[in-house]
Write a structure and sequence with these properties.
Length: 104
Amino acid sequence: MIRKLLTLIDQGSMTLGEMAVEMDMSEADLKGRMEMMVRMDQLETITIDEGSPDPEGDCPGCVMAARCREDTCSDGPTVVGYRMTEKGRRIVHGPGNGRGGMGE
């Protein structure tokens, strides 16, 4: 289940609701699982504050990078997403695979 979730995150551009359907679980359960994976250093959170378009180049790693408008982060509320850490990438791709995270 962890590998499947990490693979979905690696593919990117899915909402929490879409991932919950794909994983056959509620959004609340999925969010709890993802928070656990943050604590296990398999995922990290991305926070893009209102009024700051692509701070630190986070948009390519954002779960909504392929779907949102360019002004979503700068004109809207704070966006919180998840991306894989190196540990998460090793689970999906194996050791030594230099592939980046979501959208990278």
